[in-house]
Amino acid sequence: MMLHFLHIYQHNRYQGWIAASEQAARIGGWPSKWMVRGLRKWTHAFVHDTTNIPNHKYGKWNSSVLEDEDLTQEICLHLQSKWPYICATDIVQFLDMPEMKEQLNLKKPISERTACRWMNRIGYHWKKEPKGQYKDGHEHEDVVAYQQQVFLPFIATLTPHMCKWTQDGTLEMIDKEVESSDDLV
Questions:
Q1: What pLDDT score was predicted for residue 31?
Q2: Positions in the chain short of pLDDT 50
Q3: What per-residue confidence (pLDDT) applies to 176?
Q4: What does pTM read for this prediction?
Q5: Would the CA dihedral through 65, 67, 73, 75 be positive or negative?
Q6: What DSSP line would sit under 63-126, residue for residue?
Q7: How many CA atoms lie within 13 A of 176 on its CB side?
Q8: Of 158, 94, 87, 177, which Cα lies nearest the Cα of 129?
Q9: Of 9, 81, 65, 63, which Cα lies nearest the Cα of 40?
């Protein structure tokens, strides 16, 4: 990108130092102000000392420790031990253990946001648990007793006052009119 910057600057007859850096940054795909300023700074340092070349961190920024299949397997096993309610904090705490810090050569713990991205990459997805559904409680003795002795007999007393429908969806005639709301109690 520095080479493009200098070529653009030369092509413009050495006019428009800032404009040339902005154009080179746009061509390079980094049109941010940070990159434009950095490009000028690096080029200026290189012009004064041709041995001062910025190091490129190619291949170091996009790699992840999750590419280590053993570590991924350890994280998955740890999450399975926390089942059914797991969260990103579980990974943060797991990797914050001294033996994991030593194994991965970590100086500080990972962030929860990083743990969220890792969980997504491993294959975990976020979902809400449905509310308002029975979950193994409807067969308890106290619940069955209430249904049989209180709820169903009460519904049976209301049945004569309810509308009845036929198979084709028409309303059947009600034999008995409800005279007052006291009949329901």
A1: 76
A2: 178-181, 184-185
A3: 53
A4: 0.39
A5: positive
A6: --GGGSHHHHHHHHHHHHHTTTS--HHHHHHHHTSHHHHHHHT-SSPPPHHHHHHHHHHHT---
A7: 9
A8: 87
A9: 9
